[in-house]
Give the backbone structure.
Amino acid sequence: MSKKTLNAENLAALGAETLANLLIEVSTGSAEIKRRLRLELSHNLGPTELARDVRKRLNSIRRSTSFVGWRRRKALIKDLTTQAEMIIEKIAPDAPDVAFDLLWEFVDLAPSVYERVDDSRGDVGDVFRNARAQLEDIAPRAGLDPQTLALRIWEVVRDNGYGEFDGIIGLMANTLGTAGLDHLKTLVTAHAETPVEEPQSHAAIQFLRDLRSNGGNYAEEQKSRLIKRCLQEIAVAQGDTDAYVAQYSAAELARPHVAAEVAELELGEGRASAALAVLTGADLDQRRVDDLRWDRVYIACLLALDRLPDAQTHRWSVFCATLDRDVLRDYLKVLPDFDDIEVEDEAKAHALQFEDFTTALSFFLAWPDLIFAAKLVEDRAEELNGNLYELLTPAAESLRDRHPRAAVLLWRAMIDYALTEGRTTRYGHAADHLMDCIAADLEVTDYGRFPPHEVFEGYLRERHKHKSSFWARLP
């Protein structure tokens, strides 16, 4: 390796004095580099000195009110990341108590940062979420009093407007221990018994709150959600399934996704009958068609109760309604030899006639069975939606070698859609697809009931002859 390569070994060979002068030179005009160098100098003096500088920087960030535009986003993220790294990597090993307080203060800084930066990409939030996760590792070494920590947690979860302390109860569960969790539970239940003081708001704001609360008391509903969430997180930390489930009302248990969640917990406790009772009490009219969680838990309950025939019946019913391939695989696994082949053929025949063409094509591609995928495309070509390029493009690639006629139909659908709808941003892809059709024409010996390539291209040139920006893309 060249001695001029920029790596640690070659730079160390320059000597401390030369490197120091270089650092002074490159830091000139760069507040970020100067700040980092000062932090390293502080660390050299010990964790206490470094903690003082980090806290000073956090206070400075908190006091700032200027909006951070896209030009300064990276610098802000770098600054925040540096402060978090100093706490976690430099201070925590020698002074975990100081590091815990600093990291808690860092996470608590999040709302003031969110209020002055656009975090639609989530990268600013990632810095705070990663820092919050590290609290779990540092807390047990920080010598914290469980009851004091419980009070500290309760204060932040009550004012968790940006979700900066989401999951903090679970993260601190080991450090809280039984005494801390019990004290936290006492604080929550005491809060539940205190009356709600509805803040005075502008009439328009109050109107919007009433809409969100379905005509109820907004503050009361907000308080109720907080209490339920906290008690459930405490119950999870204590392994108390009954306490967790007790926080759901009968109306909530009637929702399929809630029933499925509770049933999973009951199953985990070995109470399959109770789990099944919860599931059968749900209102399945509220279930989304594409949400199979209730069905999967229901099947697990039946299996736990040695009701395999009932489980199989439900699996087949679910498959017929959704074409979910995992459900079908589970169904086939327990069938006797050779019966599975016959049933698989029956399942594929059903998929060919499935109401939703897109779901059927996705099933055959994922199973996979390209023969049936090609048959589906050719049998129901009139149902092709050329706008679904994210499905049709990879489908055509999968079919092009052994089923070129079906691949051509997929390309034609996307070409026709792009041109008919005037989707100029797709003209480049459409031109590529037309070239694919030309190449596949050499492989297709019989177009069957579909027009041959020269007829299709002639149709395109006549109907879309004025779309010069498309035709210009062809060789």
About this structure: The two ends are 47 Å apart (CA to CA). The mean pLDDT is 90. The CA atoms of residues 114 and 120 lie 10 Å apart.
